[in-house]
Amino acid sequence: MPDLKSENVPALDAVFALLLALDALTPHPSLPKCLGPLLKDLQQPVPSRERQELTELIHALWISNPSAEASALMADAISAIDNQTPAKARSVLDVLVDQQPNWAEVHYKRAIVALMTERPNDAITHLGETLRLEPRHFAAMSLFGQICLDLDRLYEARFALQRALHQNPHLKGLKETILSISQQVDARNNRLNA
User: Fold this and answer.
1) Cβ distance 89 to 81 under 8 Å?
2) Looking at residue 31, what DSSP letter applies?
3) What are the pLDDT digits (tens) for 81-93?
4) How many whole angstroms separate alpha carbon 178 and alpha carbon 161?
5) What local confidence, expressed as pLDDT, does residue 7 receive?
6) What is the largest CA-CA distance in the chain?
7) Backbone dihedral region of 49: left (phi > 0), alpha (psi from -120 to 50 degrees) or beta?
8) Which residues contact 25 (CB under 8 A, 6 or more apart)?
9) Domain 29-193 has CATH 1.10.3720.10
10) CB < 8 Å & 24+ apart, contacts of 169-177
11) Staple partner for 116: which of 77, 86, 104, 184, CB 3.0–4.6 Å?
């Protein structure tokens, strides 16, 4: 990943504004209806299913599509990402976004590929599109938070990670990261007020 602190990232403010308004957004109607109850169950202190199983089921639904061709292309893109071949993943995802522009997971995978190819501004834009279509996408919120953290945008990072943790309170390491960010913010505020 490049040194993001030196990058000009104009999309960040727009995506952060979107993140602030997530409660007013509704998931795209093409998303499976069963996602709502599963995501609500995941938010419970003790979900009805094992947390990992529930998270995997949600991810499986996000990457699924009624079109067999689109599902096969998504599998190819995921394989290319896993095999660290971003050029192949990008070409597959470019085809998919033309065919399925309202499929949130295509945009999320494009964000991952953009980060793999050191294009953080593009990644942020793709994450914004992901959240516009699926405002409950905790992985997109978490990734956006990490990018903000890398950019030393601590307030935005903390908020994004808090939103991700609200959607999935079982995400590992997020509570500790949020606490660390809060300590850094407090230290900065103390220096400014001194």
Assistant:
1) yes
2) S
3) 999 999 999 999 9
4) 7
5) 53
6) 61
7) beta
8) 18, 131, 132, 135
9) no
10) 169/42, 169/43, 169/45, 170/42, 170/51, 170/55, 171/138, 171/142, 174/142, 177/149
11) 86
Supply 56's token pair. Answer: 């995997």
Supply the pLDDT for residue 194. Answer: 64
Q: What's the average model confidence in pLDDT over 175-186?
A: 92
Neighbouring C-beta atoms of residue 69, cutoff 10 Å = 12
d(Cα 12, Cα 4) in Å, to the nearest integer?
12
User: Which residue shows structure tokens 């959607």?
Assistant: 167
Cβ proximity of 1 and 144 under 8 Å: no
Prediction pTM value: 0.91
Q: Are 143 and 111 a contacting pair, CB within 8 Å?
A: yes
Q: How confident is the model at residue 125 (pLDDT cuts 50, 70, 90)?
A: very high
Query: Which residue bears the tokens 């405002």?
Result: 135
Q: Please tell me which of 50-54, 155-159, 184-188 the model is most confident about, judged by mean pLDDT.
A: 155-159
Residue 71, number of CB atoms within 10 A of its CB:
13
Calculate the average pLDDT of the chain. 92
Query: Residue with structure tokens 């230290």?
Result: 187
